[in-house]
Design a protein that fits this description.
Pfam family, one: DMP19
Organism: Saccharibacillus alkalitolerans
Largest sheet: 2 strands, antiparallel
Protein name: DMP19 family protein
Number of domains: 1
Number of strands: 2
Structural class: mainly alpha
């Protein structure tokens, strides 16, 4: 599988289209969560805080809804935990903020940015997230609507026109 450079345009029309993935698509292709903290933080510099928060929240939701907090923290995606936490606070999604903060506290208050060290923390703290996973699965906070509202309130921060490096 090769890669190709593709132009992406996140316009007002994209933002009004209700597809959060399309709105943060530039981050999906430009932010490396797999090769460590330095690469991750360097890649984030290209984007606004609202974009970063939304990106991190979407990773968090995808992982937790697929396999719980254990999956989120044990996979490479766990590197986004701090941006997701700050994003929930910025957007005003208090129930998810509280849940993620509790999960973070169960890993000593600061999950490591390195995947292997974070996995060691899961073992060291013998973290049980079942109750937190259940709270996420039972939540009726209308999170997608809140995220879309936040995006629209900060529309200028999400506009993007540029080239990304995508798999063919």
């Amino acid at each position: 599988m090769g890669f190709e450079d593709v132009e992406i345009n996140v316009s007002e029309e994209t933002i009004n289209g209700n597809d959060i993935d399309a709105i943060i698509e530039p981050l999906w292709w430009n932010v490396n969560i797999y090769d460590g903290e330095k690469e991750y933080k360097d890649d984030l510099k290209k984007f606004t805080l609202p974009q970063i928060y939304t990106f991190a929240i979407e990773w968090y939701l995808a992982e937790v809804n697929n396999g719980g907090h254990d999956q989120f923290f044990s996979n490479s995606t766990g590197i986004v935990w701090e941006e997701a936490l700050n994003g929930f606070k910025a957007i005003g999604i208090e129930d998810y903020y509280t849940i993620l903060l509790e999960a973070v506290n169960r890993l000593g208050g600061k999950p490591n940015m390195d995947r292997e060290k974070r996995q060691d923390q899961l073992v060291e703290y013998n973290a049980d997230f079942e109750d937190l996973d259940h709270r996420i699965y039972q939540s009726e906070s209308h999170i997608e609507e809140k995220i879309l509202s936040y995006i629209r309130e900060n529309q200028k921060e999400f506009l993007f026109k540029g080239i990304v490096h995508k798999p063919k």
